[in-house]
Design goal:
This protein has 16 helices and 13 strands. The chain is an alpha/beta fold and 454 residues long.
């Protein structure tokens, strides 16, 4: 019998594959996860397209490379890929009827790199239509199937939380990796803007979009980033190792004015600060207008999305009413408001850069509440009722605006549902962030697979 926990760790898979007797092979592991997808996914609806034939071919090729001594840690590791990322010969629908028959002729650069490293594609996971929203229908939350999964990388997050794969690839424009990661109790990274190529990935807002890995442990995300982050991430990784070996004591800051949050998120935030105080020094950090940064993000995102979607103007009747209305509303943005948002973004970026002169990592709450019920359009946080999507992005949208890397970690629970935090670092310090995230994660000791799917 194959142990699920062992299958969800990249490092443990790599070790098992290379044992002298090779008790475990990529073919076994791929069949194990394909079976889970077949049995479990009809209940959570995280997948759009499953690719069993391709996966088995890739698994057999990975087994041969391992036998020949190839040391790549991603060899034979199954993955889910958000259905915005092109894979040659596979549909890329972007969760929309507009692209229901769109089959990619060439793989996105990010998948070319992962495939070359030996990763195995189990299939395409669901996204909110064109990544423009926070619900990812019809995907439901594995922790409670009457709850939302978040978006727009809700399919990858739900699949991970149900134990359908060790790794996934998502995209993040206003929190689209980190929001579903928090609501589903998994780990997700929004890298420094520009670190990962978006060539071959259907855009939402090109200046804010970033492809990012999702999984069960920060160390696993680091293994992915070494493949897709290129020379920039590799150089940062070397610097991080050098600085830590020189005895540098970690300097944490925590956000002093994060806005309202539920009691469970408040506890998770405080628990993470307590962990930080054991790992290094801690100080309070005040970011003026932090809660308003989401509106800067939404303004920039909306205008860019309008231009992206001009190419499908003749298919507008195929859009969901939700996305069509958001595009129509964004098209009304005037030039003054757009330019004001651009200037505010530049000022905010410089402000956050300055903060990281004095600290290494900033602790920020994640989504300020646990997963809402299906159909909810507003959420109650403390004494305040907020628009659901705005509230979900309230603590995440700033990092896309400023370009800083942000790591979502599970950090607690509320009424049986996971809640999380974010760790943020200086631009380009993605490797440091993942290394510190691993230390924090181990101290928090959170599980990441919903109990019903164990």
């Amino acid at each position: 019998m194959i142990d699920l926990e062992r299958m969800l760790s990249v490092s443990r898979l790599a070790t098992e594959y290379r044992r002298r007797r090779q008790a475990l092979s990529p073919v076994d592991v791929t069949d194990f996860f394909l079976d889970r997808v077949e049995r479990i996914d009809p209940k959570i609806k995280s997948m759009v397209t499953v690719t069993p034939d391709l996966a088995r071919r890739q698994a057999a090729a990975a087994a041969r490379r391992i036998a020949d001594g190839d040391p790549s840690p991603l060899l034979g590791v199954p993955m889910l890929v958000k259905d915005l990322v092109d894979v040659a010969g596979v549909r890329t629908t972007a969760g929309s009827a507009v692209l229901c028959d769109n089959v990619a002729s060439r793989s996105a650069q990010v998948w070319q790199l992962l495939e070359r490293a030996g990763a195995i594609l189990l299939g395409k996971a669901n996204t909110h239509e064109f990544a423009y929203g926070g619900t990812t229908e019809p995907t439901v939350n594995p922790w409670d199937t009457k709850r939302l999964v978040g978006g727009s990388s809700g399919g990858p997050a739900a699949g991970l939380a149900a134990g359908l794969a060790p790794l996934a690839l998502g995209t993040d424009t206003a929190g689209s990796v980190r929001i579903p990661a928090n609501l589903c109790g998994v780990v997700g990274l929004k890298p420094t803007n520009g670190t990962v190529s978006a060539r071959g990935v259907i855009p939402l807002a090109p200046s804010l979009d970033i492809v990012g890995p999702m999984g069960h442990h920060p160390d696993d995300l680091a293994a992915v980033m070494k493949v897709i982050g290129g020379a920039r991430f590799a150089a940062a990784s070397t610097t991080a190792v050098t600085e830590r070996s020189s005895g540098h004591r970690l300097r944490f800051g925590y956000l002093e004015n994060p806005g309202p949050m539920s009691p469970g998120v408040q506890r998770a935030f405080e628990d993470t600060i307590a962990v930080a105080s054991r790992l290094g020094t801690v100080e309070r950090v005040r970011l003026e207008h932090f809660g308003r940064s989401v509106f800067v993000n939404f303004t920039l995102l909306g205008v860019e999305a309008v231009f992206v979607h001009e190419q499908w103007a003749d298919r507008r009747e195929l859009y969901s009413a939700y996305v069509r209305e958001r595009l129509e509303q964004a098209a009304l943005t005037n030039a003054v408001d757009y330019e004001r948002a651009r200037r505010t973004a530049a000022t905010y970026r410089a402000t956050v850069d300055e903060i990281f002169r004095d600290i290494d990592v900033l602790v920020v709450p994640g989504v300020p509440f646990a997963a809402p019920k299906l159909g909810a359009t507003t959420v109650r946080v403390g004494r305040t009722t907020e628009d659901r999507d705005t509230a979900m992005c309230r603590n995440t949208g700033f990092a896309n605006v400023t370009g800083h890397p942000a790591l979502a970690l599970p950090a607690g629970s509320e009424q049986g549902l996971p809640v999380g935090v974010q760790l943020v670092a200086a631009r380009g310090a993605d490797a440091d962030l993942l290394a510190v995230g691993g230390q924090v994660w181990r101290n928090l000791a959170m599980g990441t697979v919903a109990q019903r799917w164990q």
